[in-house]
Amino acid sequence: MKGSREYDPELRRVYLEVVDNQLRDNNPPETRRTFDRLRSEGFGEADAKVLIASAIAFETFQVIKSGTPFNHDRFVRNLNRLPDQTFED
């Protein structure tokens, strides 16, 4: 997906690796469901993974910013919002 934001290629690679691991392990299963949904909506494999990676990155940022544990429910709600990336805090 193209965008105007600059990004760190290494960080992008790490987040995409997380997506691949979640898909491979089916953990959490919501990642696979989201991937399959996005693919059925016409997104290519790479774009679907980038979208999911954005939800993972957002949740990671929330954990670091607030010092609180990973919030599975918020993560799933944000996966369900994709491709809309106006994530819930």
Give the helices and strands, then pairings.
Blueprint lengths: L8 H17 L3 H12 L4 H22 L5 H10 L8
Explain what you see:
The longest helix has 22 residues. The protein is globular and about 35 Å long. It has one domain. The chain has 4 helices and no strands. It is 69% helix and 0% strand.
Give me a quick take on this structure.
Helices cover 69% and strands 0% of the residues. By secondary structure, it is mainly alpha-helical.
Keyphrases for this structure?
single chain; 89 residues; mainly alpha
Q: What characteristic shape results from the CA principal axes? A: globular
What proportion of the residues is helical, as a percent range?
Answer: 55-70%
Largest sheet: none
Using only C-alpha atoms, the radius of gyration works out to 12 Å
Q: Treating each run of at least 4 consecutive H or I residues as one helix, how many helices? A: 4
The secondary-structure element order is: HHHH
Provide the structure class.
mainly alpha
In total, how many domains does the architecture comprise? Answer: 1
Proportion of strand residues: under 5%
Span of the ends, CA to CA: 23 Å
Count of distinct strands:
0
Q: Based on the structure, what is the oligomeric state of the protein chains? A: single chain
Low-confidence stretches: none
